[in-house]
Design brief:
By secondary structure, the protein is α+β, with helices and mostly antiparallel strands. Helix content is about 45%, strand content about 15%. The protein is built from 13 helices and ten strands. The protein has helices at about 10-20, 105, 115, 130-145, 150-175, 180-190, 200-205, 210-220, 225-245, 250-255, 260-270, 275-280, 285-290; strands at about 25-35, 40, 45-50, 60, 65-70, 75, 85, 95-100, 120-125, 305. The strands form two sheets. Strands 9-6-3-8-1-10 form a six-stranded antiparallel sheet. Strands 2-7-4-5 form a four-stranded antiparallel sheet, with no helix packed on it. A hairpin with a 3-residue loop joins strand 4 (about 60) and strand 5 (about 65-70).
Length: about 325
């Protein structure tokens, strides 16, 4: 594979920089494995991150464990680990991958403990940015515009940080729904946003004491009940602002604020702009005609394998 855009000097500069700070990407790809295919035991000299966007009966085996990839997931394989894939016998299986080396991983940086010592099987939560990051890497490698190798390394660095941040909680998040009392409390919030409800009233819906409810709520949702109620009020307000039918004062009352100025103050503090500025933004022609973006991973053409840096460090 040849260097494009005459970037031989860029290659050397980027390589030196990436060796110091960023992952060094060897290859990326987006490939369909034929139904029934097998990838027999192998031991890599570098790291491999593989994304399976669809669940299947594909099996990933290590020397100690067997994992059925029946949900969207990532597989992280470390250097020297024996592993094999047995792909679904009934359908072709798409997977996106990146091979790389990273000095921070080799040195055992504590922030990567989840990857270094945890399970290689990492389920993907519904709000994860990781699939889009990996899809963008494949796209960048395919077009190879200026500084593409540096961009790959920067995106992979972000992906690994994001992966570590979610790895400890992903299995629990996917396997365990919210406790029923917490779910009931959230529903009660949504149904009474126009009212001046108190946290005490919300806690009573759970059947728990106020103190126990607050502890359980924070543990389950990740924020206090007061902050969660405020966030839901602001989200409802933004939907009303997008409609263009209401004044700031009317919206404030419709989401449970009895003081327009208090609503405006809280909105500015948490959103970084005034409610009036948000309404003006929603009135722009771009906002009026915008449509949801397509799935970035699904929109990629597939079956590509791009050699990024031939030298394996």
């Amino acid at each position: 594979m040849t260097e494009r855009n005459g970037d031989g000097e860029e290659f050397r500069e980027c390589q030196a920089s990436m060796l110091r700070a960023w992952p060094f990407v060897h290859s990326v790809g987006d490939v369909w494995a034929a139904a029934g295919a097998t990838l027999e035991e192998r031991r890599l000299t570098d790291y491999e991150l593989v994304y399976f966007p669809d669940g299947s009966s594909t099996i990933y085996e290590t020397d100690e464990e067997t994992y059925k990839l029946d949900k969207p997931c990532f597989i992280f394989t470390r250097p020297g680990e024996g592993h094999r894939y047995r792909f679904d016998s009934n359908k072709n299986v798409r997977h996106l991958f990146v091979h790389f080396d990273y000095e921070e991983l080799r040195r055992g940086d504590a922030r990567f403990d989840s990857l270094l010592f945890g399970s290689p099987y990492l389920p993907v939560s519904g709000n994860s940015l990781l699939p889009a990051l990996l899809g963008q890497m494949v796209r960048i490698a395919d077009f190879q515009l200026a500084y593409w190798k540096r961009r790959l390394s920067a995106l992979l660095s972000s992906a690994l940080e994001e992966l570590c941040a979610s790895a400890d909680n992903a299995l629990e998040e996917l396997a365990r729904p919210l406790p029923l009392p917490i779910s009931q409390a959230l529903t009660y919030m949504e149904d009474h946003l126009e009212e001046s409800i108190t946290i005490e009233a919300i806690a009573r819906q759970s059947g728990w004491s106020h103190e126990h409810f607050t502890r359980m709520f924070v543990a389950s949702v990740g924020m206090s009940p007061k902050r969660a109620l405020l966030e839901r009020r602001l989200r409802r307000a933004e939907l009303l602002m997008q409609s263009g039918r209401w004044t700031v004062k009317q919206i404030a009352y419709r989401v449970g604020f009895r003081d327009e100025h208090h609503f405006s103050k809280m909105y500015k503090r948490l959103r970084g702009m005034t409610a009036s500025a948000y309404i003006a933004r929603c009135e722009s022609s771009l906002a009026q005609h915008a449509l949801p973006a397509p799935d970035t991973v699904a929109s990629l053409s597939s079956n590509r394998h791009v050699l990024v840096n031939e030298q394996i460090k």
